[in-house]
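Here is a tokenized protein:
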Amino acid sequence: MAAHDVKLNLAAINTLMRSAPVQAVVDSAGRKMAAAAGEGFEYVPRPHRWMARGYVQATTARARRRQARDAVLERAIGAVRQ
């Protein structure tokens, strides 16, 4: 078999990874995860220079206690996979 060189176009990959459709997918997954975590959790979109991103955070003391005690965010990841 002959060896092939693969050359990635990093500028194009970065453009794709921070595009509006990709951010929409990330936002959808983040909102599902926040909803599955329950009251006191919210999704915050944080687009980055190189990629679409966001995070779910606890907004109340009760939610922070639930996260510390029950790991609700880790359990909410399953809601995103469905």
Observations:
- The mean pLDDT is 93.
